[in-house]
Amino acid sequence: MSEEVFKKVVSHCKEYGFVFTSSEIYDNGLGAVYDYGQNGVELKNNLRQYWWKFMVQMHDNIVGLDAAIFMHPKTWKASGHIDGFSDPMIDNKDSKKRYRADNLLEDKIAKYQKDGKTNKADELQNALDAALLANDLAQLKTLIEQHEIACPISGTRNWTDVRQFNLMFSTEMGAMAEDADKIYLRPETAQGIFVNFLNVQKSGRMKIPFGIAQTGKAFRNEIIARQFIMRMREFEQMEMQFFVRPGTQKKWFEYWKEARLKWHLALGFDKDSYRYHDHVKLAHYADAAVDIEFDFPFGFKEVEGIHSRTDFDLKSHQDLSGKKMQYFDADLDENGKPYGNYIPYVIETSIGLDRLFLYTLCASYKEEEVGEGDKKDTRVVLALPPILAPYKVAIFPLTKKDGLPEVARKIIDDLKFDYNCFYEEKDAIGKRYRRQDALGTPFCITVDHESLENQTVTIRYRDSMLQERIPIADIKSILDKAISWKDILSK
Ligand code: GAP
């Protein structure tokens, strides 16, 4: 899929009510913040449900949580975010524009590759990796100068030094300025799970290994916002922390690495669109990490991370709060003694819901040639897995009169408890079908005059565009057969 088609996906999102730029009426909106429209919210809810059902409902040792966005500020000291959650930034003194130093260098590497200068690209990549590993900000600036990188806006090479810029948003809690405390909007949902580890374990009588899952908003002051909803300042994460006995983390890391990829593949998109990317440079808390990447129109990019986080987070919270974060393991070891008290190790799975949404749209968007002769046309169809589609079925009375709308409404009244139904009586039937194709609705039902006589309707299938006559009484069972969580969750 080309960049060209990606542009079409982005405009499709706006035209069909999937995604809008936040507060767009003011100066073209707020950068890197987006709103989900009437169809986007349905698709997003369905994707979130797919994750929740798999992680929580399908695992009897994983439970959910919904922690607050605001947390005690010491949380972020313990997690390392106050001291270490930053990106290396550089400003151009002429345009006054700020850039991520590593992004400027990555763009240069891409340019070298495009121009066939692979040696130069490799050399710069190695130098960039070394500078990032050593956190050597001066070296990043040297590389920018050596490779004669200019500001895309001013065209000059008049750069400031490279500085670290913390990505957390802060605000104040408290009525008076004097007694206000600085607090942060969470940059990840994970810490809400760590600080509640013992609350959940004790109240739920959870036995290790067990997991806690949650979905929710996270906030990062991303300087470079690119590629639509790929990198946002307000986004949604779906994270699960799996608490294990120390020494077993490798086994569980491998387990979740495989289980998570399988979950992606069950969506039914091309399996070659996914790959693992092992981390070479590990975060300070990790002893292993891998990303699941998807082949977006702009290349393979991270969608989900699986991290073996050791006991770093629970131990840091224990140290800073003075509250024990230990678990008592009554199981017996090989010497017949209980494992006793320890701080569990953690395997984390962390996926961005917005990135999942974006790849689902990219993988589903199709332009197809249909018809023949002068009837030749192209149709845009979202070939979404039916269970994810915003509307499962659209019901159309062929005309607005003769009692056809009443029959259509009656069908909806029967289906709406189980399925999101769309009703439309305007425009020619072909036009109505096309609009549903563009939303990804798997089935359309048309009520016509024959329906009044023999209680049958036409069902039209989104993917094959085939139409057939079926009894009204059969609609529900046809939908039940084609749309089921079981199909996707048992793959
Ligand atoms: N708790 C671990 C953690 O937050 P991360 O790799 O920083 O790890 C996990 O983030 C996932 O969250 C990423 O794989 C990505 O899908 C999503 N994500 C991170 N930053 C994002 C952003 N600015 N916009 C959209 N999604 C983002």
Written overview of the protein:
- The protein has 491 residues and is of the alpha+beta class.
- The chain has three domains: 2-76 and 178-360, BirA Bifunctional Protein, domain 2 (2-Layer Sandwich); 86-166, Herpes Virus-1, CATH 3.30.40; 384-489, Rossmann fold (3-Layer(aba) Sandwich), CATH 3.40.50.
- The protein has 17 helices and 23 strands.
- A hairpin with a 5-residue loop joins strand 22 and strand 23 (467-471).
- It is globular, with a radius of gyration of 26 Å.
- The mean pLDDT is 95.
- The chain binds glycyl-adenosine-5'-phosphate.
- Glycyl-adenosine-5'-phosphate binds at residues 188, 190, 220, 222, 231-232, 235, 237, 239, 302-305, 348, 350-352, 354-355.
- Glycyl-adenosine-5'-phosphate is lined by residues 188, 190, 220, 222, 231-232, 235, 237, 239, 302-305, 348, 350-352, 354-355.
Secondary structure blueprint with pairings:
Blueprint: H1 3-15, E1 19-21, E2 34-36, H2 40-57, E3 62-64, H3 74-78, H4 81-84, E4 86-91, E5 98-100, H5 101-114, H6 118-133, H7 137-146, E6 163-166, E7 170-173, E8 181-184, H8 190-195, H9 197-203, E9 210-219, E10 234-244, H10 249-265, E11 274-278, E12 288-296, E13 299-308, H11 312-321, E14 327-332, E15 338-342, E16 345-352, H12 353-364, E17 365-370, E18 377-382, E19 393-397, H13 404-415, E20 421-423, H14 429-439, E21 443-447, H15 449-454, E22 456-461, E23 467-471, H16 475-482, H17 485-489
Parallel strand pairs: 3-9, 19-20, 19-21
Antiparallel strand pairs: 1-2, 4-5, 4-6, 7-8, 9-10, 10-16, 11-12, 12-13, 13-16, 14-15, 17-18, 21-22, 22-23
Helix pairs in contact: 2-12, 5-6, 5-7, 6-7
